[in-house]
Structures are given as C-alpha cells and as structure tokens.
Amino acid sequence: MKLLLLGLTMLFFTQSAIATTYYVDAKNGKDKNEGTSAKHAFKTLKKINRLNLKAGDKVLLANGSVFYGNIELENIAGRKNKWIEISNYQSKDDKSDALPIIDAKGYFNGILIKNSSFIKVTNLEVTANAGGVDEAKVNKNTMRCGILVLSDQVGEYENITIDHVKVRDVFLMDEGFKRGKKETFTPNGTQGYGWGIRALNKVKDSGFKNLSITNCEISNVAHTGIKVNGKSLSIKNLVIANNKVIEVGGPGIQMSGINDGHIHHNIVNKSGSNNDTRKWGRGSGLWTWGCDGVLIERNEFRNANGPADSAGCHIDFNCSNVIVQYNISENNAGGFCEILGNNFNCAYRYNVSINDGYRVKKKGVASQEGKIFWLSGFNGKGRQRKGPYNSYFYNNTIYVKSDILVKIAVDRASKGVLIANNIFYFEGESKQVLGDQYKPEEEGEVLVENIVFKNNLYLKKENWPVESPITDSQPEFGNPQFKNKNGNLPTDFMPTNSALVKNKGIEIEKIPGDKKGLYIGEKVDKDILGNPIKDAPDLGAIEMK
C-alpha cells in the first residue's frame, strides 16, 4: 500500500511539473480543440485568457494570423528555467513570415501582464487603434497600452522580458479627435492617451526586478513609446536596449523610480510628433525622473518636437548618478544638455550634438527657449530652487549651424559644475537665456560655486555668451576642421586639425567639494567610436588617429 501511495505521489508531481505548449491559429484553429498541438490549435485569444498557465507553459500564435482581442496574464508566475512564454510559430498550412498580430481595438491593453513574474513575450505585433471608449468619461488616468506591465498588489515581481515585439498605432480616441491648444503646454497631458510599452508600479511596497525591453519597434502611438514608472526606486535592474521608437506623440523613452538601469543602443526619432491630432505633440527623446544609477549610452536621439522640454535626452529633477555618454543627438527642438534641480552627480560626456536647441520662445507657440546647455534648479512648482549639484560636462562635440541662435541657461542655485575638453562649434551668435520658471531678479544674486570651467575649444570668442554667470577660465579658439560638418553621423564630426585637438584634453577629476564623483568613474577608456584613449585625451568626443 505504501509503495502504491508513493507511486501515485510521484506520478502526481511528475505530471504537475510537465509544461504545456498551447497553439492558437486564427485561420485554421477552432476553440473546441484541445489547443495542445498545431494541428488542433485554438482559434481565439479568449481561450488563452481562460487557461491557468503554470511554470514552463508556452502560448504560441500562428504567423500570418490576426487575432482580435487581447491577452491577459494576471497573478501567474513561472520560475527560474521555467518561464511562461507568449510567442509565435509557423504553421504547416501557412508559410508566412509575418508576425502574428494582436489587434486590440476597443480593449485597454493588447497584452496585460499583471502582478506576475518570469514572463517572456516575443515575436509578436500589437496594435490598438481606438474604439470602445466613452469620451465623456475619459480623464488623464485613462490609458490604452500596446503592452502594460502592472503591479497593483504588494510584492516584488521579477524577470519580465519583452523582446522582438512591434507595437504600432495605439490610440485611445477615435480618428479625428482634436486636443485643445493648451494640452501640449501641460507637463504630461491632462487627457487620455495611447501608449506603446508601459510598466507601472501603482502601490507602495511593490515593484519590479529584472525588467527588460529589447529589440522592439514602437511607432505611431499617441503618447510615450516606452514608459517605465516606479515608486521610490522600486524598479531594480532595468534594461532598455536595441529598440526603435519612431513618431510617437510624447517622449520616446521615459522612466522614473529606477534603481540601476542600462539604456543603450536605442534609436529614437521624431518624438513629440504632431502628425495626428490625437497625439500629444511634445516629448524629449528620453528623460529620467527620480532615478539612481542609470547609464544611458550609444543611443540616437533625433528630431524631438514640442513647445517645452523636447531635448534629445534630459535629466529631470530628483535624480542621482545618471550618466549620458556616447550618444548622438541631432535636431532636437529643446536642446542637448538639460539637468534640472535636486540632481546629484550627473554627467554628459563623449556625446555628439548636431543643431540641437533651435526652438524660440513665443507666446502660444513655445513656452521655453531651446537651449544647448541648461542647468536648472527647478524641482517642482512653487519649491525653492535647488542645484543641480556636481554636474559633469566633458569631451562633448557640439555643432550648431549659423541660422540657429545658440542659447545657454545656468541657474543661480547650481553648485558644483565641471565643463572641460568640449568642442563648442557655434557658427552663429549665442546668448544667455532664462530657464523654466526662473526669475533671478526675484531670487537674488548668483550663487553658482565650485566651478571647474576650462580647456574647451571654441570656434570663436563669442561662442560662450559674456553675460553667462560662469565663464571659461582657460579657453582655446580655432577651427577643429570637422570631416563633414553638414553630416549627421559621429564620424562626420571627426576633427582633422590635430594641432588644436590632439592630446589637448586635461584629465578629469572630481569637482572641488565632491567626495563621491561619478558612480562609474570620471575616466573613460574609449571615445564615442570605440577608439582607445591613450595618454592625454583629445578635445571633443572623438580621438584622432
């Protein structure tokens, strides 16, 4: 009898440990099928939402199929080496290479991952263009997402991967809906929008660990392309890499509450797009808020649009240890370097900026000037201006063509500033302007202190505005003779004038009074192209050979 019970127990655990693969085929499947083989596939996503998925289970959608509806994964968990996967397969009857499409029109999410762990979503396409919404009941919290990763229960949800997914055409409102003229002037919008891929931690004592969004393509959504928001550094180890974010109505990539993030090799183009009246029409290529330890490198930020912000990459307030390096920033209305208040030990280094900051402040058109360099003490409306503290800006190459007025803003509250080894190539004029909600005549004298501003190369003496509260103590002047100043690649801005540039950089050390420095160090071994830095560094972002 004991042997029989032992045998039954072992059989139970063996069967419970066996993972199941489910197949869904919109063309050839039937919901009355068992769904456990391609030959007997389910037809609709409704069957998937009724399954009790367990560790190791897979749901595979047939290539070439269009599925109307959504997938909801709630309160489920895989485990190490037994993730729950949602992916694709190629059926024998259909040799299409086209990814399966989830058309979630009328649903709030194409894919919802809620309070779950060890989930992987790959090789799918998601769209959700309007439908199913009573516009009279829509408010700023109403959202439609291509993919939503959500935690609204106490707990740490870990190991969620979204890879090789296309998200396109995500709108909450029906085509033809027009937003009011003031909507784009609000900080983040006051109405409902469509988002690309969004991760959201809604409650205290909850968060995500090991969240990655890689190799995805997000295009034509009403607001932000990729948005990850946590509370009090509740999102740990975030990776956003090798994605393309194109023509989104808000920022390309935005994050808050991140503790340890690596954002690399992404291409963001035309953030803040206004080519559809349902879009917000404002957004930086990338921005952070309330984060600690985020490395942003080897990305492209191009053509950001909007009446405010809309820089290539900007560091919003309440951040520490955010480093922006090895990026290309081009034609972004708001500018290149933007570090707001209550930020500590942040840096821009070894980046190339091309014709950034062209926006001109004008009532009803733009509420902020575009700025190539901006240190702002703003850290919330009505709050006393603070910092930023210990801002490092070195070995950047900045080119601005003659028909753009270069604008620079340095807040009186800035403390600890290093500007060195940069190439400032401004063909036109430059001026000092005021930053966001900055009224120095009401706030008193300039208090900027602990400044290391020296050893930068300028095309001409007028490149840095004389009215600026900080000035270069050891400037150099001359033409670095870029390889192709009309280009838009980092290699186009390789200097050829070795006498001015080669080995002319100084070694970067901690700012006086800064005991901490940069969290991954001040010294780098390679330039933006991967060339090794030997002996003294060159000026700018590229080492001459």
Distance between the termini: 81 Å
> Radius of gyration from the CA trace?
26 Å
* Sheet with most strands: 26 strands, parallel
Count of helical stretches = 4
Secondary-structure-derived class: mainly beta
Average pLDDT taken over every residue: 94
Q: Could you say which overall geometry the principal axes of the C-alpha atoms support?
A: elongated
- Uncertain stretches of 5 or more adjacent residues: 2-15
What does this structure look like?
This protein has 545 residues and is mostly beta strands. The chain is 5% helix and 37% strand. The chain contains four helices and 38 strands. It has a 26-stranded parallel sheet that branches. An eight-stranded parallel sheet has the order 4-7-9-11-14-17-20-23. The chain has a four-stranded parallel sheet with strand order 26-29-32-35, with no helix packed on it. The radius of gyration is 26 Å and the shape is elongated. Mean pLDDT is 94; it is low at 2-15.
Main features:
single chain, 545 residues, eight-stranded parallel beta sheet
Record the SSE blueprint.
Elements: H1 2-17, E1 21-24, H2 45-49, E2 58-62, E3 66-68, E4 71-74, E5 84-89, E6 101-103, E7 109-114, E8 119-129, E9 143-151, E10 155-171, E11 193-201, E12 206-214, E13 217-221, E14 226-229, E15 235-241, E16 244-246, E17 253-256, E18 258-264, E19 267-269, E20 286-289, E21 292-297, E22 300-302, E23 313-315, E24 320-325, E25 328-330, E26 335-339, E27 344-349, E28 352-354, E29 371-375, E30 389-394, E31 397-400, E32 406-410, E33 415-420, E34 423-426, E35 430-432, H3 440-443, E36 449-454, E37 457-458, E38 476-477, H4 498-501
Parallel strand pairs: 1-2, 2-5, 3-6, 4-7, 5-8, 6-8, 7-9, 8-10, 9-11, 10-12, 10-13, 11-14, 12-15, 13-16, 14-17, 15-18, 16-19, 17-20, 18-21, 19-22, 20-23, 21-24, 22-25, 24-27, 25-28, 26-29, 27-30, 28-31, 29-32, 30-33, 31-34, 32-35, 33-36, 34-37, 37-38
